[in-house]
Amino acid sequence: MALVASLVVVLARARHTRTKSLLPTPMPICTTCTTAVPYLYTIYGSPQNLRLEQCTKCARDQRDEPPETKTHSFADPYVEHDSLTLLLDLMLLKRAVFRHLLYNRGTQPRQSVGGVFVDPPAGASREREKLRWLNILRFGGPLVCIDAFIRWSHLNPNQPHDLSPWTRQTMSALFMTFVGVCTETLAFHGGVICACFLVLSIADQLQRQRRISDIRREFRFSLIPLTLFYSSLTKLFLLFLLTIWRPSSEPIRLPFDVQFLDDEGIDREWIVRNVLGGMSAGFGLRVILDIHPFFTTMIIIAGWAVKTAVSHLVSRWVAMGGDAQMGEAWLAYSIP
After folding, report:
1. If you write DSSP's letter for every residue of 144-194 in order, what string do you get?
2. pTM of the full structure
3. Are 303 and 231 within 8 A, CB to CB?
4. 89-103 pLDDT, tens per residue?
């Protein structure tokens, strides 16, 4: 894992050096058309008295449209939305909320002081990058804990109700599950980051003559793990529902004979974790990479390959802990 982490750091520095020459000062973007804007809103006196900035490109595109079809041309309307709205839109996989959280979160506004407009300070971009890495730890930590609890519940479905959940055996199994989930998460993120570097390097060579989009110029490697965590919310929410609300013990008989739709033949956890989880992760990467969906699919498959290799090692470690059956169940649950 240390070798993978070192490789990721080297690749990230090389990519950052290349993108830094393209756009020295990162800027926020319009959540609708991804055009770079100098600021998102202007504050007049107090933080509650603000005016959202309009995107000139969106306003120009809607100039000839009839009034009944025109919509707002604000660069980022999510500035005024609460956390619950952001969470719901994240679970619905809306592009605009991904762009707001990944590119515009933490940007400094323009201020009006005595009738004079003061632009955001030039050094604010470094603070945004530090804040982004802090958000990865602050947001990813609880999600990994939730994922570990969901997996532990899946691997231990028949826990006796009259037994205290805080026994030494239970806590040991939960700790091993947490360590295993952390290891697999690091492996998956490392594989995706390395695959993104290779794909973007090839894409830059093939599209050297084309104009680079604003969203590509604003790309940083710190966006990748944050995107993967954001896109996993829908998957973890549905897996948590399956954990606390188990399917009926009696299968539902369908009026027609279709074997693959039977309850006994459907692995809901596998479908949610791999099919829905892979699609959500690919969607998130599509937002920040601005490349063809085929390449994002290849990136996710590369991340799965690295995660599968690490899962074999983790399952052996779990089996060495004294429970060979749990090691096999771990491997079956982890492999896509």
Report:
1. HHHHHHHHHHHH-----TTS-TTSHHHHHHHHHHHHHHHHHHHHHHHHHHH
2. 0.82
3. no
4. 999 999 999 999 999
